[in-house]
Amino acid sequence: MPSRKYADGEVVMGRWPGSVLYYEVQVTSYDDVAHLYTVKYKDGTELALKESDIRSQSSFKHRKSQSSSSSPSRRSTSRSRSRSPGRPGRGRRRSSSQSREHKDDKKKTIQETSLALPPVLVLFKPSENNTKRYNGEPENTEKNDTSCIILEQKLKPDLELKHFEQYGLRSRKDEKKKEEIYSEKKIFTTVKTMEKALSKTKELEFGGRIGTFTLIFLLPATVFYLLLMCKQDDPSLMNFPPLPALESLWDARVFGIFLLWFFLQALFYLLPIGKVVEGLPLSNGKKLQYRINGFYAFIFTAAAIGILLYFQFELHYLYDHFMQFAVSAAAFSLALSIYLYVRSLKAPEEELAPGGNSGYFIYDFFTGHELNPRIGSFDLKYFCELRPGLIGWVVINLAMLLAEMKVHNLSMPSLSMILVNSFQLLYVVDALWNEEAILTTMDITHDGFGFMLAFGDLVWVPFVYSLQAFYLVGHPTVISWPVAAAITVVNCIGYYIFRSANSQKNNFRRNPTDPKLANLKFIPTATGKGLLVTGWWGFVRHPNYLGDIIMALAWSLPCGFNHILPYFYVIYFICLLVHREARDEHHCKQKYGLAWERYCQRVPYRIFPYIY
Q1: What is the pLDDT of residues 528-555, one digit of tens each?
Q2: Phi first, then psi: what are they for 254, rounded to 5°?
Q3: Which of 178, 189, 391, 427 is 20 to 30 A distant from 82 in Cα terms?
Q4: All residues at 6 or more sequence positions from 23 whose CB lies less than 8 Å from its CB, including other chains
Q5: Neighbour-count burial of 233, counting CB atoms closer than 10 A to its CB (0-12 exposed, 13-18 middle, 19+ buried)
Q6: Of all helices (H) and strands (E), which one includes residue 601?
Q7: DSSP assignment, residue 450?
Q8: Taking Cα atoms as reference points, which of 269, 34, 22, 30 lies closest to residue 149?
């Protein structure tokens, strides 16, 4: 049985799997059966490495000292003797003799070094942040401060050395300068190649290339299917709706109204009102600036809608042409996605999205190739996240409320419609009021802006999230006041969990030493941040998702139980949050290492207590 070379607790240099990067690690244990060392990186990540992938720190120091020769002192001695004022002839003979000795020593040193050392050795001494970066995780907490040590030990061909010895045409100063330039070019090329390879997306989501290709067609088909089902008298899942004529799906006037709405929200976004805040540091250390004025845009939109209603504009026009509006939004999102991908091809490497840089066209087109595409200071992704789709959701709900009153000749909307509008209005206003919190979400810090977010923001949110209101227009449901009160309690419970959990997390992130948070306990991590194990985050790992699901259920209950169609949103929301939770688990495990495993042991349930 081979004996182990490194002891537990010993600090060594461990090679990162799949690369030539060596990081400072600490040996924690050794497996006698598999002959693998378990080592711990500075960020808390633990990996099992072979003995061949581990080297002592002294070996690196030895090689670094070996690469610097003592020849400068000899050259200095040679120059001092040759420039002696006395006995010039003998000085020249000594100079030529010493030159030959120096060349022999240099050639011997080169031969020994070429046998002892590899051609190129690139060492990165990672700080906490660049370790996370090369793990493939998005930088979302601190500035990426990369410090590196690069030892360039590539030797010149023997032919050039013989040429120099034979003719002696170059001075030592010129030769040294040429060597430095050669070394710098080689180092620059090596580092750029390494960074480009490491920045590629390794793990593909959504089923990879085949899955994303399918979703590009499946998502629009799902939206159109749901809208056609709601128009039927019997919206049963087995009662497939007849397909409308293609020419009836497109209306140039409707498309013009959609463009007017989009650019009106863009105008509100550009207004110089609201505070300007900085986002989280990017991979290059920069911080983008964002203007927080979403709530003001909502107020201006409400005023504009009020003016239209005052002049008797029929807002239920949205209901009459709902399918055409959905098709217009889908066409616009597709055109926007094509534009985003084309412009991302010219974007610098550091501006590409960590999750959308796989090198596969379909995958990068779907997930988004560029992280923060901007036209000047106009951030396209940040604008679409909250403005056209989210505010449009509220406007569509209002249009459905007015359409219900007109279709059924009501003097006031039904109690079910009032509940749906009120609950979802509260959700949208909360998102706009807490707009700054979106800057720390995965959508902003990790996901690129491609078809997935463009279609989701401009089509899925306004036309699927308003499904309950659209359903109630054609399928009115009467509920009693006690039932309405019970549904309201359910929504309030979900909202309380959602808002208090997010506030607890945000306050702890901003100021962990706040006396108001003194009762909260946490697990320290290698990143310098803590993982809450009390409060809502000690109840389940993602209490905000639990609140989301409870609210989604409350939005669907006013529609009754005659059909499952209004509950599609609840089913979709559960699937979406389970997917997000799995992705969050993966990134947190990479980011926090053993601290996350300890947290999972303390908080075993992910979303649903005692269930999942």
Answers
A1: 778 888 888 888 888 888 899 999 999 9
A2: -60, -45
A3: 178
A4: 13, 14, 16, 41, 42, 124, 125, 126, 131
A5: exposed
A6: helix 594-602
A7: S
A8: 22
Of 379, 255, 222, 221, the closest CA to residue 329 belongs to 255
Cα separation, 454 vs 269, whole angstroms = 17
- Determine the angle formed by the axes of helices 467-474 and 568-592, rounding to 10 degrees: 170
Q: Which of 122-136, 318-332, 383-397, 403-417 has the lowest mean pLDDT?
A: 122-136
User: Domain residues of the chain, as ranges?
Assistant: 10-57, 200-478, 479-611
Confirm whether pTM is higher than 0.70: no
- CA dihedral (439, 442, 445, 447) positive or negative: negative
For domain 10-57, say whether CATH 3.40.50.150 is its number.
no
DSSP annotation string for 228-244: HHHHSSS--TTSPPPPP
Q: Please state, as a whole number, how many other Cβ atoms lie within 10 Å of the Cβ of residue 149.
A: 12
> Would you state the structure tokens that stand for residue 86, as one six-digit string?
């006395």
37 strand-pairing partners: 30, 49
Q: What sign has the CA pseudo-torsion 296, 302, 308, 310? A: negative
Query: Considering only CA atoms, which of 319, 284, 516, 301 is closest in space to residue 400?
Result: 319
Tokens of 117: 């050392």
CA 516 vs CA 192, 511, 512, 523, 611: distances in Å: 47, 10, 9, 18, 31
| Whole-number Å distance between alpha carbons of 590 and 584 | 10
Residues 560-575: pLDDT tens digits? 988 888 898 788 878 8
Flag the least confident range among 15-19, 70-74, 110-114, 116-120: 116-120
pLDDT of residue 307: 94
pLDDT digits (tens, 9 = 90+) for 164-175: 444 444 455 555
User: Could you tell me the sign of the dihedral formed by the alpha carbons of 287, 293, 298, 301, in that order?
Assistant: negative
Whole-angstrom Cα distance, residue 48 to residue 37?
Answer: 5
Q: Which amino acid is at 455?
A: F
Residue 55 token pair: 């080297």
Between CA 400 and CA 317 the distance in angstroms is 10
